[in-house]
Amino acid sequence: MNQLDVNQIRLLIVDDNPDFADFIAYTGEKLGFATEASSNPDDFWEAYYTFSPTVLMVDLQMPKVDGMGLLKKLADFNCVSPIVLVSGLDAHVLEMAKRLGVSLGLNILGALEKPVMMMDMQTVPAPIMQNDIAIGEKRQVISENH
């Protein structure tokens, strides 16, 4: 993991396949992100609170918890970080998950189909950087209210 810089994109990946999670983390680091990868959904919440991600990459199909359930929990916790959905499932399932996330009030940036290539990852930073100020303001309001 890179040393944290307040202005750096902090990408938290949760995917039950450790090789895939590590590949995404490595690719993210090459693109200048600070990264944290969790292949165990149970460890995700600790990483979520300690790493304070500016963007999440969530696998939709995991054995212990499905991505849809994780989206519901993130909404319950008023998550303001942009979310990129990842899955080897078909495009229809990804589209349904995006709609669910949006309907829950989450900031769904988009979805990537596995296998994910490095050039797919290069599309992630631009929308985050465009929304970065608004995200920071939302985090401040939420932390002031809790």
Description:
- By secondary structure, the protein is α/β, with parallel strands linked by helices.
- The chain has a single domain, classed as Rossmann fold (3-Layer(aba) Sandwich), CATH 3.40.50.2300.
- The N and C termini lie far apart (about 30 Å).
- The relative contact order is 0.15.
- The C terminus is likely disordered.
Secondary-structure element order, as H and E?
EHEHEHEHEHH
The CATH first-level class comes to Alpha Beta
Give the number of helices.
6
Look up the CATH topology: Rossmann fold
Average pLDDT score = 78
Counting DSSP E segments of at least 2 residues, the number of strands comes to 5
CATH architecture verdict: 3-Layer(aba) Sandwich
- Write out the strand line-up for the largest beta sheet, numbering strands in chain order: 2-1-3-4-5
| Spatial shape | globular
Domain tally:
1
Evaluate the radius of gyration.
14 Å
Are there runs of 5+ residues with pLDDT below 50, and where?
132-146
Relevant terms:
single chain; 146 residues; alpha/beta; Rossmann fold; 5-stranded parallel beta sheet; 6 helices; 5 strands; 18% strand; globular; disordered C terminus
In short:
This protein has a single domain, classed as Rossmann fold (3-Layer(aba) Sandwich), CATH 3.40.50.2300. The protein is built from six helices and five strands, in the order βαβαβαβαβαα.
